Amino acid sequence: VQLQASGGGLVQAGGSLRLSCALSGGTLSDNVIGWFRQAPGQDREFVAAIVWSGMKITYADSVRGRFAVSGDNAKNTVYLQMDSLKIEDTAVYYCAAAGHPYYIDTSAPTYMYWGQGTLVTVSS
């Protein structure tokens, strides 16, 4: 399984970005897909994740109400819509696949496959 994250960039505070995560070598329905982020000098933190069975989505408290996860099975792609961006959202964003379709775990080490990351910079 390989993941390719894209869509990062520079945006002003209050603005929006949409990240994409394209999956190959596997299917969305066979994987819980998670989004994580890592700011300079900080640990990688959970942002959101989606499990296709039952369409359960979990968000970190810091992004709930501002970020939204969706997916396109035909394109084997997951999206992270980020609205009302804050300076503290600045980080490298990663998508990851759990290797199973059953439950969401917010711990990064439990995800088997990782994309290369895309940088999101929010300016004042």
User: Approximately how much helix is present in the residues?
Assistant: under 10%
Q: In this structure, how is the largest beta sheet organized?
A: 7 strands, mixed
Number of distinct beta strands? 11
Q: What is the strand content?
A: over 45%
- Count of helix runs: 0
Average pLDDT number? 95
Question: What oligomeric state best describes the polypeptide chains here?
Answer: single chain
**Class per helix and strand makeup:** mainly beta
Order of helices and strands: EEEEEEEEEEE
Q: What is the radius of gyration computed over CA atoms, rounded to a whole number of angstroms?
A: 13 Å
The separation of the N and C termini measures 37 Å
The general outline is globular
Walk me through this protein's architecture.
This protein has 124 residues and is mainly β. The chain has no helices and eleven strands. It has strands spanning 2-6, 9-12, 17-24, 33-38, 45-51, 56-59, 67-72, 77-82, 91-97, 113-114, 118-123. Strands 2, 4, 5, 6, 9, 10 and 11 form a seven-stranded mixed beta sheet that branches. Strands 1-3-8-7 form a four-stranded antiparallel beta sheet, with no helix packed on it.
